[in-house]
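Input record (Table S2, row 457):
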Amino acid sequence: MKHTDIEKVLTSSDMVGTDAVVCGWVRTFRDSAQVAFLELSDGTSFRKLQVVIDKNALAVDPDATKLGASVKVEGTVVKAFKGEGNELNAKEIVLLGKCPPEFPIQKKRTTLEFLRGIPHLRLRTNTFAAVFRVRSVAAQAIHRYFHERGYYYINAPLITASDCEGAGEMFRVTTQPWNASYRTEEEYFKNDFFGVKAGLSVSGQLEGEVAATALGRIYTFGPSFRAENSNTTRHLAEFWHVEPEIAFAELPDVIEIAEDMLKYLIRAVIEECPDELAFFDRFVEQGLLEKLTHVVNSDFAVCTYTEAVSILEKENAHFEFPVHWGSDLQSEHEKFLTETVFKRPVFVTDYPKEIKSFYMKQNADGKTVAATDLLVPGIGEIIGGSEREADFDKLAAAMRERNMPMESYKQYLDLRLFGSVPHGGFGLGFERFVMYCTGMENIRDVTLFPRSVKNIM
Ligand code: ATP
Ligand code: MN
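Output record (adenosine-5'-triphosphate complex):
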C-alpha cells in the first residue's frame, strides 16, 4: 500500500504544500461545528499526526473516527497551526478496519496490570509503543557496538545437554512422555530424542568460550531460559541475553568493556529516542533523563565483595537477610549498595568461590574468584561476569569439588588443554537494560509476551 510514514509527514519541511497518503490508527477524535480533528499513529514516531477535517468539504464515515479504528488518509501537508511540525488537511478518508467500543484500550489511563492481561493489544498505548521502540534501538546499538569493535556475532545453540550450570533452573526438552516401564532415568533418556537428557540453555557462555578461543572477540545475543521459581519483577523464564566473550582479557578488561558498552547503549537510546525518553521522564520515572545523562558522564564505582560486606554488615539491622562474609548478596543488599552507598552503578568484584560458578578464575587468596556483578540503582544486578579459569588443573579441581560429571565437560576442558589463554566475559540481561532506560519497574512490561511461573499468555 503506497503511503508515507507519519514520522516523515510530521517532520519534513520539504513536504509542506504537497499531497500525501498516510495510514494509521485513530488515537483521538475531536469534533466541533465546522472542523474535526483526528490524531493518527502508525508506529513510526512517538508523536501523532493531526488530521484536520473541514466538515463543509468532506463527509466522514463515523466508523473512521472511532478510537482504535484503522484508516487511510489522503491530504495536503501543511505547517501545524499550533506547535512544531506538520499536520494534514484531509481530502479523503478511507476506513480500513473498524473498531467497536469494546476495544479495551480506552482514552482514560489504565493500569499496567490491566494491560498485562491484553498483551496483544497493549502496544497500542503510548507507554508500550515507546518501550518497544527503545528496545529495538537498544538491540541495534548492541550489534553496532560489538561490530564496530571487531567482535564476531555468534549464535550459540539453545538446546543443550550440559545441565550443570543451570542445575534446577533448566527446562527439559523431550519428545517422550514418562512411561512406567522405564526402570531408570538413564534408560528413559536413552529412548528420548537426543538419547541423553537435554534442556534449554541458561546461557551461551560455554559455547561463547569455544568461539572466543579461536576468533578472539565474540558476542552472542539471543534468548536464555531459566525455570526461575521466584516470581520477581526482574526475572523471566525466557529472557534475552547479551554475552560477549573475549580472549586475552582479565577481570579489569571485562569491567572496562562492560562499562564502555553500557554507556554506549545508553547514549544511543538518548540520541535516538528523545521523544520516548521525555515521555518516560514525565510519566514513568521522574528524573530519568538526568539519571541516564549522569551515568554516561561519570565513572562507575568498583568495590570488592569483601569491602561491600563490611559496609553492609553495619546496616544489618535494616535488612531482612543479615549479611556476613560468605553469604550471597540479596536484592535488598545490592540495591542498598548502588542506591544509598555509591549512588551510581557499581561493580562488585571477587566473590567467595562457594557462591559463584565453577568456571570462574580462582584468585591467589584461595577463597575468592575473579567475578563481577554490575549493580545499578532501581534494578540491582544488570550484568554478571568474570574472568574464566584458564588453568586445566585448577578448573578440573573445582569441578571435582562440585561433583560435576567430567565426561560431559570434556570439550570445555579441552580449551584449557590446547593453547589456553586468559579470557573472560559477561552477560547483560537485555530486558533489565530496557527497564533501566525506560524506568519501567516490571520486567513483564518490557517484553512482548512475558513467560514466568504460571504465566504463558
Ligand atoms: P539474578 O541473581 O538476578 O538471578 P543471576 O546471577 O542468575 O542473576 P547471571 O547468571 O549472571 O544472573 O546472568 C547474567 C544476567 O542475565 C544477569 O545479570 C541479569 O541481568 C540477567 N538475568 C539472569 N536471570 C534472568 C532472568 N530470569 N530474567 C531476566 N534476566 C535475567
Ligand atoms: Mn538467577
